[in-house]
Amino acid sequence: MSVLNAEIAGIFNRYAALLEIEGANSFRIRAYRNAARTVQDLPQSLESMLKEGEDLSELPTIGKDLAAKIKEIVETGQLSDLQKLEQKTPGDLAKLTALPGLGPKRVKALYDVLKIANLADLQTAIEAGKLRELPGFGSKTEEKILKEIKRHLQAEKRTNLHAAEQVAESLLRHLKGVVGVKAVVVAGSYRRRRETVGDLDILVTCTKGSNVMDRFIGYDAVEEVISKGKTRSTVLLRLGLQIDLRVVPQVSYGAALHYFTGSKAHNIAVRRIAVKRGLKLNEYGIFKREKRVAGRTEEEVFAQVDLPYIEPELRENRGEIEAARKGALPRLISLADIRGDLHSHTKATDGKYTIRKMAEAARERGYEYLAITDHTKHVTVAHGLDAKRLAKQIEDIDRLNKKLEGIMILKSAEVDILEDGSLDLPNEILKELDLTVCSVHYKFDLAAQKQTARIIRAMDNPYFNILGHPTGRLIGQRDPYAINMRRLMMAALERGCYFEVNAQPERLDLTDIHCRMAKEMGLRVAISTDAHTTATLDYMRFGVGQARRGWLEPEDVLNTRSWKNLKKLLKRR
DNA sequence: GCCGTTTTCGGCCCGACTGTTTTCAGTCG
Question: Which tops the pLDDT comparison, A134 or A432?
Fold first, then answer.
């Protein structure tokens, strides 16, 4: 029985939803949700932790009871308590609560009175006009739920950060000109640089009487105004992204920014500290009785609970508060620390520009070096380089390096890892390169053990330097291939190889959790754009964001170093 | 169900908006 952490988290969430419908103690419900999140965030599989005899109740939010339940799930693939609960509440009530506007109380009422157990029942009941007969339900509710059912059937989707940026920039331009508006900032998971966002949270401070709310709902990409109030409004854009706008007074700006940046788990943790000190923290400030003692800036808010400023990317309640208390917060890497890009393509394969154009674009970004890493021959669709063409490219780069000032072009290639773990070019040519990025581009569906062995075998090659896009996932489109991440990282450490954080917004692997795992293991990473055009060299910001979420410091990242120092690190034995 | 800088019992974050209500419950973030 092989059980994934995500499945265990799913079982806990489902259990929590059913408990909620039953009307169980809300803190008990929260305990299951907290545990689900802990499980989801773990870099290591619970199954392997159990195998190694680790005590799961030492994990935060996991006590004796939940540790036993995890053990049961790992051993049997299911949770008997959940099955019991499912028998009591037939159909798919848990799924119904996923519809916006339908919470546990209403779902229970729907089932008790109308025997509604799934989406189809619900739709039928609404169409028969049954819903409005229930107390607390009216025609508006009916209408809203029907719309949500239809939307749900089209599958809800998170928006990737790149697309969210484009919306945010346009909307900010729309709002900044409004009379009386002082600050406009995007908070939420966007500010925490999560790889995808569910919605955008925009925070505004303005003078009294500003018509910013009207301006907001008048934004031309708005499809529907979901709610409109004096301090908060919500709209849905045509492209399916929801936007919340909140207006707060200037004296509350810091508290509100902190509050709306989240995450929820981080906020709860900070509030708990406030409560312990006899303070109350909300989006308007920190209060001692009725008196506001802080709120104008985030720093002020943190200071009131005796914490230093915590960077938004760290605010996930993954240990940042404890680290802050101990003065052990990382000094996060920033874009300015990056001195070069170690993964880029040119016209020779599937890129769009010449080596020279790419190099000049890298120089414009203030880089010292750019590695040209065109595909190799196995990737026929990209017209991958064979040894002969690569040899020619090496000569071209040598010549260009003599001519170009202010940027060093590194001779490299994105070498294909074949199914048997060999590389698809002979070592005679690889040894002429400054470095290699080695990647898997086919046979994604091997079993974890085989895929892991394949990549380790590739690392055995002395010319293997950096593992490119280490999981091969495409966010929302293709799952990561199955690998044992810990074992791979260990193998890289032993051999002097490195991992890449691929900065393409569709990829962003390593994930934040895996970045942190690499750091804890002492494995350094390269943050690379995999640019196929000059413009996409700017994707570096996404990679840096992911690295920051993974607590990485400049020291943890290869390409914060000068080429001279980087060269030493790349040397294998 | 978890957890401990008051605690191994008794707490556990907090406010806005909507719809259906004459004062508030439910939902959401």
Answer: A432
